[in-house]
């Protein structure tokens, strides 16, 4: 008999597994920050800083005592985190590094062929030359290897040495040792990654088992497709094979959707099933989420669980945007209640709030707006701003 998980329980399980059910005002030291990132699994990195960069907002939304200096120390001094790829660039616990070595090997052949075609004949020599420069001069920035006549641009216009650096990073030969003004400094992996992690070897079966179990633990319940997509380490077929081989340690569950349609089939760990729904009620305060928050990364899952349709509109022409360039989702308790358009004006020291959109059925009550104002004030302080400024027409939406 399939166990059914109610929609409200499903939302709360997911929020708890992703660190959003803990008291956001509880003091968190550096060790607590590392534990939080291990709980989440990884923290996505993004360069856009409309208010704060994605990784900082992801962590701040979970604990408002988060300190950026602690993250920098974990990355650059303690080497307790490393920077690499999941579905996108992310900060990842260093304890996971041995499993990423399988990704490095998979990337090697794929990227070499892809980028050789992209950069043209004779490019292979640049790989060796660039690696030698890192060995000789590292840490090194890509800009230090750029030809004088090269015109910078997006990834499609990387200079050859930049492409080679990215290849060596994606395949594990070099690591990102630190950033300056968000620009990456590269060094040899053996000078960045502690030997106990860099030299550890995990066989293929153990790698697949870890990747699937670790993903399912952080999702609470999931389809095999969701398991594969979480870290983007294993293929959908590998996740299906893992589920088939581990029937005895898994339980089939039916997860109710927010619209009351037929429960969606998923898997949960049998060892957790008795306590799966024993999770705390999330804090009632309103919290601003990053557009890249883990609970929104799988847009379809977010729509099924929360009834919240979110698409980032950075690449949508302005005239065709429904909301705005970089609009932030709002979480209240276990509900996604709306989205807000705002931007930090650092010269004036103000958080300029342009527009608020609440979801259908969510009232703009005085109490709710007061809670929103309190959260925006907290975010402004975290961002080094003096206060919040509501622009004319803020509530017209």
Task: Explain what the structure shows.
The chain is α+β, with helices and mostly antiparallel strands and 397 residues long. 39% of the residues lie in helices and 19% in strands. The chain has 14 helices and 14 strands. The chain has helices spanning 7-17, 30-40, 54-62, 68-76, 97-119, 124-137, 160-170, 195-198, 204-219, 224-231, 236-245, 294-297, 299-306, 366-382, and strands at residues 3-5, 43-44, 81-85, 89-93, 140-141, 174-180, 183-188, 250-255, 264-269, 286-288, 327-332, 335-345, 350-358, 387-390. The strands form 4 sheets. It has a 5-stranded mixed beta sheet, covered by helices on one side. The protein has a 3-stranded mixed beta sheet with strand order 1-8-9. Strands 2-4-3 form a 3-stranded antiparallel beta sheet. Helix 6 (124-137) packs across helix 7, helix 9 (204-219) crosses helix 10 and helix 10 packs across helix 11 (236-245). It is globular and about 65 Å long. Mean pLDDT is 92; it is low at 153-157.
Outline the low-pLDDT stretches: 153-157
Which of globular, elongated, flat, extended, rod-shaped describes the shape? Answer: globular
- DSSP helical segment count: 14
Series of secondary-structure elements, N-terminal to C-terminal: EHHEHHEEHHEHEEHHHHEEEHHEEEHE
Strand content: 15-25%
Strand order, biggest sheet? Answer: 10-11-12-13-14
Please state the structural category. alpha+beta
Could you report the average pLDDT, rounded to the nearest whole number?
A: 92
The overall strand count is: 14
Biggest beta sheet attributes: 5 strands, mixed
Helix content: 25-40%
Radius of gyration, whole Å:
22 Å
Distance between the termini: 46 Å
């Amino acid at each position: 008999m399939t166990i059914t998980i109610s929609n409200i329980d499903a939302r709360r399980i997911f929020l708890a597994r992703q660190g959003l059910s803990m008291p956001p005002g509880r003091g968190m030291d550096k060790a607590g920050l590392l534990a939080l990132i291990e709980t989440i699994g990884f923290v996505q990195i993004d360069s856009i800083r409309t208010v704060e960069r994605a990784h900082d907002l992801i962590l701040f939304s979970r604990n408002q005592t988060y300190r950026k200096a602690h993250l920098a120390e974990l990355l650059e001094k303690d080497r307790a985190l490393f920077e690499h790829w999941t579905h996108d660039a992310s900060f990842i616990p260093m304890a996971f590094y041995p499993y990423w070595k399988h990704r490095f090997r998979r990337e090697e052949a794929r990227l070499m062929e892809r980028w050789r075609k992209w950069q043209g004949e004779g490019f292979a020599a640049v790989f060796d030359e660039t690696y030698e420069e890192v060995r000789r001069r590292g840490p090194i920035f890509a800009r230090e290897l750029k030809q004088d006549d090269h015109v910078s641009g997006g990834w499609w216009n990387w200079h050859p040495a930049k492409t080679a650096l990215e290849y060596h990073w994606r395949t594990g030969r070099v690591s990102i040792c630190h950033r300056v003004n968000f620009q990456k400094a590269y060094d040899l992996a053996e000078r960045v990654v502690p030997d106990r992690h860099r030299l550890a070897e995990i066989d293929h079966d153990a790698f697949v088992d870890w990747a699937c179990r670790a993903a399912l633990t952080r999702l609470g319940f999931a389809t095999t497709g969701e398991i594969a997509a979480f870290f983007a380490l294993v293929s959908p077929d590998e996740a299906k094979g893992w589920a088939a081989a581990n029937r005895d340690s898994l339980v089939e569950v039916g997860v109710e959707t927010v619209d009351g349609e037929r429960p969606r089939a998923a898997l949960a760990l049998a060892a957790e099933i008795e306590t799966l729904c024993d999770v705390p009620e999330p804090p009632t305060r309103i919290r601003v989420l990053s557009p890249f928050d883990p609970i929104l990364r799988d847009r379809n899952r977010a729509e099924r669980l929360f009834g919240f349709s979110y698409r980032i509109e950075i690449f949508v022409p302005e005239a065709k945007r429904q909301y705005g360039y970089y609009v932030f989702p709002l979480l209240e308790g276990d509900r996604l209640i709306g989205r807000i358009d705002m931007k930090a004006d650092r010269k004036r020291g103000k958080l300029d709030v342009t527009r608020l959109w609440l979801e259908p059925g969510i009232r703009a009550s005085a109490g709710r707006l007061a809670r929103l104002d309190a959260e925006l004030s907290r975010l402004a302080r975290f961002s080094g701003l003096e206060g919040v400024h509501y622009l004319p027409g803020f509530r017209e939406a």
